[in-house]
Amino acid sequence: MEVCYQLPVLPLDRPVPKHVLSRRGAISFSSSSSLFGAPDPRQLSQRRGAISYDSSDQTALYIRMLGACVVFKQLFPRDVRVRSQVGFEPERRSSHPYLCIDFRTLHTRLSCGSASADSGTEKRVHRLLSFQRYLHSSRLLRGIPQQIPLHILDEDYSGQAKCMLEKVGNWNFDIFLFDKLTNGNSLITLTLHLLNQYGLVDLFQLDMVKLWRFLVLVQEDYHNDNPYHNSVHAADVTQAMYCYLQEPMLSKSLTSYDILLGLLAAATHDLDHPGVNQPFLIKTDHYLATLYRNTSVLENHHWKSAVGLLRETGLFSHLPAEDSINMERELGSLILATDISRQNDYLSRFRTHLDQDSLCLNTASHRHFVLQMALKCADICNPCRPWELSKQWSEKVTEEFFQQGDIEKKHKLTVSPLCDRETNTVGNIQIGFMTYVAEPLFGEWARFSDTRLSQTMLGHMGLNKASWAGLQQEQTTAEEAELSAAGADAGGSHSKEIPQGSREY
Predict the structure, then answer these.
(1) What is the DSSP letter of 69?
(2) What is the tens place of the pLDDT at every residue in 328-354?
(3) Which residue out of 126, 223, 229, 353 is catalytically annotated?
(4) Taking residues 29-46, what's their average pLDDT?
(5) Strands (DSSP E) along 38-145, which ranges?
(6) 399-452, pLDDT tens digit by residue?
(7) Is residue 229 flagged as an active site residue?
(8) Residues 401, 228: Cα–Cα separation, whole Å
(9) Are 60 and 28 in contact (CB under 8 A)?
(10) How far is CA 480 from the centre of its chain?
């Protein structure tokens, strides 16, 4: 098999800061391109790295860089020749101005050693970064200082955060407050706490430095400019997942391996989310849509991004290779289950199991399926939270929809459903979502796990739906009154403008 990579080059006219050079990323290799130019064997002997190949995805190989390059000779029995090219093939290029960065690469220049430095030659290193880290790095390279949005918090804040973590299993856990108390580090703090609470760090012999770096990079790769799909949402889903893992049906059946997978999947399930949905990526001919053949585009990207960070940090490098690969595969299975377009498929399977009473949690495949359903519930549990929290999430997700609609209008694209702020409201969007998506899912979950938590969630959802309906009614009544008043004013002013004599005709 012969493989080539194609990466666009960003020319730089200034030195690269050391903290930027310390970043590592992943490179996507296209298996469909023509080949020429073999690598220097002397350089190959100094390369090291890891490679993953998804047999169901013939379009790409993924390589996570551990050093400057990768040892192709050790990974393949045959010779692998590579070439570098500025830009991408036309079919790989996004034609839409909003997503104009085809592959998020950072082109840096490193010295090849004293001999190379003396000769003035330089080595080019290509790294695939998440969109978030790409923007951060490019700002640094342009000399734009980093903006720190929050001040450094004192011990009182961290003390309050620790007090909140003592009640992390409560369904009314305020993730917005917790994020403020942790100075915007809610995802790191929460996930690390839960892993320690379950004893998973010691059980799986996780290196604390690697784990900390992994969680930092995960949080960093969420786009906090997104109103909804950001690191706070990931932390909220992780906290909800923990609540479900505590339910009797799961707590007495799941293994430590299952729990580790569930928490990692929750923390990374929307990693590097661009703030737009799959139909938008497809109709703008985005490279991700082409790469994943218009199927679970975002979910595949979240999964591959998570695997990339696992390999970059070497979090599971101490485990047998087979165990590590299986963990990556099962992590992907959980994340792919959050694809809302496949909601009915999973719900139908879940309903069939419950009708036939055929779920056996002693079976690994059944436990994994229950984990998938738990993550699906955690991902869309906002309507089931108390009103004060649910309302904030509803407004945030709707604003993200509307921002996508604004982009579509600006570039004269067909506005996606629910994304037009002139024809939709938060209330009608939420009522529809609860009716057709949330209520069927959580109704079946309550059949599976008929506990106080399940009944609490259904109760909150009913109250929230009624609250949105009430707000909708108030808004409709106010608009009708306003229109009536405007009509009366218009009629009165119109009658005054009619000449006196014309009223006789």
Answers:
(1) S
(2) 999 999 999 999 999 999 999 999 999
(3) 229
(4) 41
(5) 49-53, 61-65, 105-111, 122-128
(6) 999 999 999 999 999 999 999 999 999 999 999 999 999 999 999 999 999 999
(7) yes
(8) 9
(9) yes
(10) 41
